[in-house]
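Troubleshooting entry. Yesterday's outputs looked truncated, so today I'm pasting the complete records for two proteins to confirm everything comes through intact. If either block looks cut off, that's the bug. Protein one:
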Amino acid sequence: MPTYEYECSLCHHHFERKQNFDEEPVAMCPKCLGKSRRVLRSVPVIFKGSGFYITDSRKGSDREKAKEKKPDKSKPKEQ
């Protein structure tokens, strides 16, 4: 169950509630009974590990390499 953060518009009291996705937002502040609103915050993105640069990616898959090594049997050999 996600935790949502709320802020009162009158007293600026911050509080959190665990709610289901389909529940209605909390309309009143528990401290002063004023109007409250849900606070939305940005989520930090952290890139770790390899694979984020063009030089980190693989050149080709193992299947492509295996196809290159096998001789093509459909074409006759030139002599």
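Protein two, checking that the full record survives here as well:
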Amino acid sequence: MTTPAFRPDPRLFPFESRWFDGPGGRVHYLDEGEGAPILLLHGNPTWSFVYRGVIIRLRKQYRCIAPDYPGFGLSEHPPDYRYTPAEHAEVIRALVQELGLEDLTVVGHDWGGPIGMRLALDEVDRLRALVMGNTWYWPLEAVHLRAFGWLMSTGYVQSLIHKRNLFVEKIIPVGVKHTLADEVMEHYRMPFPTMDSRAGVAELARQLTRSANWLDEIDYALPDTLGNVPLLLTWGMEDLAFTPAFMDRFRSDFARSRAVRLEAKHFIQEDAPAEMSGAIREFLEEDRSASQ
């Protein structure tokens, strides 16, 4: 079992690292601030670093918890772990149970969406609200994403992910509106210095097509179990993958939804952290006022 041997720059990542020994080995997470808890779930190939701008803005009012899945960020890379979204969801569920989180808001982006929805279904009694951005929770139907998932599963592209860190070097730059600073890009590279360390990234790329049955279970159970949970959509309107049309599916399953449209591409936390944080704060304040 290996642990990444890098230290984030405290100027960019001014947080205290915490650790949880669970079903996925030693998992790194942040736990910043006090108040009602907000669980921030990242996608592929990012880690808790992606939420730094959101956490800084929300931790004065809320308890912000941001884990790294096994094989991502500062978490361990267990040799017997398969890096599937189903396994990640079990790790996150174990962390939520360990921390005893109640009145919980789950924020999901990219793969954090279906992972967060699985958690919400399994721990619905702990749930207060959901915030989803540029994500999904059903078997992929859009032709462009099915084609992308098929391409990512080919041996050639899998080798590029392992050998050249393709997902970090290409997907992140095209997923933001403005060029990221060199030191920011370096923090996305740091967790994946070797071919073996990129196994988690490569597997989640394959799971776009291979997780259809798992996603179908979420899709089937969600309307009856979560349909009345308050939902905020914080959506990057210039995302070429998860286009604004994806919001229609959320609206059809959630009776209490609202949307905030962001001038952002896929990585909304990089393009619009202030706008995203403000939308979450306003949403939770309005929900609290309505429930009183």
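Both blocks look complete. Sanity check on protein two: The two ends are 48 Å apart (CA to CA).
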